[in-house]
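Forwarding these from the shared drive since the link keeps breaking.
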Amino acid sequence: MENRPARNYTKLVVVIAVAALVVGSVAYLIISPVGKNTIPTSTLSSTLTTHSSQTTTPLFSTFSAPLPVGSQSSIYDPANGYVYVSYGDGATGGVSVVSGTISVANITLDSGPGPLLYDPANHFVYATGVNSGAIAIINGTEIIATIPTNLPSSFLYDPANGFVYVASQASWNISVIDGTKTVASVGVGEAPSSLLYDPSNNYLYVSNGGGDTVSVIDGTAVISTMTVGSGPSSLLYDPSNNLVYVANEGYGLGGTVSAIDGTNVTATIAVGASPSSFL
């Protein structure tokens, strides 16, 4: 038998710190970014208490970037190291602000949970109270402004112009926000639901679920409206070919995915029933 030299294997061990946080009646699993708010190994048997519920939950391991369990939305603010967690039962709700393993603030909204968005240019967090339709703008742990909208469904930050876009399902428009002020209201198709930014052309794509169309916005103006499959919902950008994909749920007519190049639909692909999301 041939004698082979022994191989040396280097094993990379990554230590992740994990904590359970109870906000209201919902539990969240939080991992803090590497180098931020790390939990010493000596504290692994301790407990975590939140201000909102005063419920203690054992810590499981050690810490590293937010991974919520059961929340509709959560984000991390690299400017202050806070994790923002949206919570609520539809009738009441708000945003909990977490630093490390401590809830440092509880911001009450009209209802929740709703989507959150981080604006890296201003270091603001945008939140919606859902039922009220107002957008709350949070700086740190305080609401500094509110902007009225009509049944907001999704947010998007445009890194090319620094604007925040808010889709309003009931009024069929997109609110364009610069910091704390609305600078434009852009009319789109029926019941806009999802927003997507295309970095190859700096366009904003809007799926209009009630009208079977996708609107394309450049800055504050619609430059194209394309007919796609029935019930467009989720959007995805593919950086390998610069195409935008649209999941068309079909509503009993058969699911499809539309491929868009700039302002033109280049293909419609038949898929399984009711496609609703991309990976």
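-- next protein --
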Amino acid sequence: MNTLRPTLYLLAALCLLPSAHAATATGGDAAAAKPKAANDAFPLRAKYIDVAIFETADLAKRFGDVVIVDVRTKYEYDTLRIKDAALIPVTDRTFVDQVRKLRESTPKPIVFYCNGKTCAKSYDAVLYAMNARIPNVLCYDAGIDDWARAHPGRTELLGKSPIKIEDLITHDKFKGHLLDPKAFEARIGAASIVLDVRDRAQRDSLLFPSRGEQRASLEDKDKLDPIIERAKKEKKTLLVYDQVGKQVQWFQYYLESKGLKDYFFMKGGAQGYFDATLG
């Protein structure tokens, strides 16, 4: 019986396997950080199985050794962000070009983050970079809220750092300022001011044109501030809506910073109103 042949087959098979060194040299930290298993806390991990993940402890430990990139909107970034993070919105048409330019400027791992466990933007950012053959990119999918609560000293809120954990708006507090579209509309009257904060690209017409509705984009503080001050002075309820009910949660930080307490947001935004009244 020839005992040499099985040994030769085994050696040949081992030679075909990629070495750990080769994987690390090609992908750096991204290759070393294996994709995490999906669970109830991170429901999107099952969809993005090829994305390498940084946990909160990983990011804290390697904070000075990585480049952190916020891939949300500028408004979200200006409201609450990881300290010293760069801003490259994943929705920007030049996203890949900007990330490639960043990669050329540093050998450090690039870690993308967004709003957390149910937000796909940071996962998508990694995939876009990988498809463009940009190496060593990772996803911090716990997001800004988890980070801010774990590391307030390395977080900025409305341009200030460190932050106080008690200044972070909880889900319950946000939910307490939500009204369904019918309840929102029922509140409109002499004791309230309606404010449309959709951007110009989203606006087609006012939802409540005959009720003194105001318009101001979230970035236009010159228009927003007088409306907020009027609501406070006249003791009127400020009723605010955006396009789909997502951006108002960041606007809430601004309203709180201005000392306004009597305000409500329309659940689902303008789209929610159309769905409730026309759908």
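The mean pLDDT is 89. The first helix runs from residue 4 to 16.

- D.
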